[in-house]
Amino acid sequence: MYNSLRNVAILFAGSIVLLGMLSFSAYHEVRESLEYAKSVERIHIIQHEAEQLGATLKELENSHKGYVFTKEDQYLNLIFASKEQISKLLASLQRKVKDNESQLFRLESFKRGFRKHIAFLNNSIRAIRTAGKVDNDAVSKSQIQANQMLRDLSSFQNYQKQLLSVRGMQKDQTDNQMSRKMFLFALFTVILLLVSFGLIFSELRKRITFQDELERKIEELKRSNSELEQFAYVASHDMQEPLRKIRAFSDMLLIRQRAVLNEDGKSTLQKIAKSSERLQNLINDLLAFSRLVNKNAQNVETVSLDILLSDVLKDLSMLTIEKNAIIEYDHLPTISGVSFQLHQLLLNLISNALKFSKNGIAPHITIRYRLLLGSKIFNIPEVKPFLTYHEITISDNGIGFEQEYADKIFMIFQRLHAKSQFEGTGIGLAVCKRVVTNHNGYIKAESVSGHGATFTIYLPNNRNEE
Asked: Which UniProt keywords apply (predicted)?
């Protein structure tokens, strides 16, 4: 499953990269098109100005001829206007082709020819205005120079046309390459997306199958739990009744036949009664544990731990007096939980503290409480650092245990001492673990053999935050 998800992630990442490359290529293509459009527009503008330059040069020649033939001053105004226009157009073209040395060279040649042409025109005009006659040599040289300028300008225009043609070919080649590249990007992207879809579809089918299997297992667990509940019912009724009769008849036999029974018979009946009592306690503890496993039996309500602690201490008052125990406790909070479960939790922990006491030393039990952040709780990785927890510690001065058994003691039927030393079924601390787990909390045990034990409970401040 992990490998499938990783493959899907890789394929999607590849698709995103290809889409990014496709987008970049499209952006690059748009930029290239814009640059091409600008360059073509610039070439057309230069061509247009070159055509204007040629037309103005011809107008200058025509105005000169008109003045030569008519000697009228209105042609002088036209000549002056044409000269100004040619100068402006020439300067504009030089600015526009400043990065092209060959074109600048052509324009420089045109400019030099234009200076000579103007000199010839001035000589021709001066001869007419001063001597009243036409300087045929100046007119002829002016015409020759004008033709040379037109040839230079034609060369300039031809270069611009070739440049436009080359740009067009480059653009077509670039467009073809870019089209193929974008097609390949799009093709690979579609392939990757299709493969990703196939993997996702396959993964969904696996998960649906897994979900169906999980639901089937859940139904089996429900049936199993139902059977366990039926077993608990049988254990609480059908099994306990014969057990009570065994105990009752063995007690009756011991009382009625005491006079005729020898010591061996009396010892045997006492062992039967003791074993029956131990079996009765085991059944009761198993029933209590089964109630904790059954979620339907959990009625969540607001519970005052102070009141529960008071009830527990009343239940254990005879044992407390018998052992001369000292029990100190803080004010405990009111929380959201299951009352009978929390009662069992406190009852088991305090009764254990009383039970596992040292011979000849009065038990001293302290119950402390504080509210703290999860980030202040160490050695429990599952604790959520941003939640607040109720911390309840129950410490005693009893016999304790080796710390290496701190986890083992919470397992059902696990005992660290022989039955002959301390009575019990080995279920009490398993019940405590189950109660705390049902309340989304944590419990840990710390001890040094011969120096008492400390049990610490952490319950969330608000179960709705979970």
From this structure: ATP-binding, Coiled coil, Kinase, Membrane, Nucleotide-binding, Phosphoprotein, Transferase, Transmembrane, Transmembrane helix
